[in-house]
Amino acid sequence: MKIVFLYTEIADYFLSACLELSKDAEVHIVKWEVAKEAPFKFDFPKELNIYERGDYNNASLMKLMNEINPDIVFCSGWIDKGYLSIIKNFKNKIPTVLTMDNIYVGNLRQRIAILFARISILKNFSQVWVPGELQRHFALKLGFDKNRIKSGFYTANTPIFEKKYLINRKARMDNVPKRFLFVGRYVKEKGILALWNTYKLYKEGGGTWDLWCVGTGALWDERLNIEGLKHFGFVQPRGIPKIIEKCGVYVLPSYFEPWGVSVHEMSAAGLPLILSNKIGSRSQFLSEGQNGFSFDAGNLSALKKIFHKIEKLDSCEMARMSQKSHELAMVITPK
Fold it and tell me: Please, what is the Cα angle at 175 between 173 and 177, to 5 degrees?
């Protein structure tokens, strides 16, 4: 089977799933240029056929598609009009699948976009593939019949993080690293400013755990520098597991997070979770009280209380949380 992904910005976890897929199919990926804000460096597996979107105009891309002669084509959202023209050409000939992680927020702009999409775009797709329930709800709003909606679109590169869990499991039963970990862009919607301010209050209240932050972005120059808080800047995916092994709990305080693959990654590595209520993957990977805790986004007082609560847990309780995180993570894998 020949499979084509017309993609926007790829990630390591997407490639890990495509590599697994290539064991049973011929996989072709057309991708956008890497974003400057997250300058990932990829080692593309030889099993995958990779094409740079910038090397093709709409006509030459259509020529490439005809040469590949795919059995199924996936399209990442509807922002690339060239991709949409290709989907239109393959409509009713092969399965044409929309992939998206958008969620419904109900504002005027989105309602207008939905009406436009129903008329001019979505009729060309046979199915839609989404990460979870919030995206499924949006797909229904777009007019897709429930039988045409498939879930499980995103997966972490679980083998890498599971390995870290298995290696560290025994040591963590006796000595949990007393560090909170954040991984993400330094932008307002990630709740990074609230995280730093909460951590400052936590330390002033006698908190003993450190906070390690991995990432960069528009708020880099506004980063807080106090005792216990460490900034790593941007780290390539292959470097994240080494940082994870020195941390005890993952925290993601986002104000807006349609899914959040990092939550899946940290769960697979066995980290208990502290998540805001605005994270799409929370319902999949967080079982309240069993492998972590949630709070209302922006509520510094609630987050500070969770920090202190985590600090008081003993090694056995942390080990049980770690195991539960890992179990929940392994429900969705590249395989």
Answer: 115
What does the pLDDT look like over 243-253, one tens digit per residue?
Answer: 999 999 999 99
Q: Judge whether 1 and 71 are in contact, CB under 8 Å.
A: yes
Cα(234)–Cα(217) distance, integer angstroms: 9
For residue 261, what are its two tokens? 């693959």
Identify the CA nearest to 261 among candidates 153, 140, 128: 153
pTM of the model as a whole: 0.93
10 Å Cβ neighbour count for 79? 10
Q: Picking from 17-21, 35-39, 54-58, 160-164, which range would have the lowest pLDDT averaged per residue?
A: 35-39
Query: What DSSP string runs through 3-65?
Result: EEEE-SS--HHHHHHHHHHTTTSEEEEEEPPPPTTS-------TTEEEEEGGG--HHHHHHHH
The sign one gets for the Cα dihedral 123, 124, 127, 133 is negative
- The 8-class DSSP code of residue 148 comes to G
At 180, the amino acid letter reads: F
Q: Let me know: does 79 contact 53? Beta carbons within 8 Å.
A: no
Q: What angle separates helix 192-204 from helix 300-312, to the nearest 10 degrees? A: 60
Assess whether pLDDT exceeds 90 at residue 234: yes
Predicted local confidence at residue 121, as pLDDT: 81
Residues constituting the chain: 335
Q: What is the distance of C-alpha 139 from the center of its chain?
A: 19
Beta carbons within 8 Å of 233's beta carbon, 6+ residues apart: 214, 215, 216, 220
Burial class (CB in 10 A: 0-12, 13-18, 19+), 190: buried
Distance of CA 117 to CAs 32, 93, 120, 150, Å? 22, 21, 5, 19
How many helices (DSSP H) and strands (DSSP E) are in the chain? 12, 13
- Give the other-Cβ count within 10 Å of 13's Cβ: 21
Angle at 285 between CA 31 and CA 277, to 5 degrees: 90
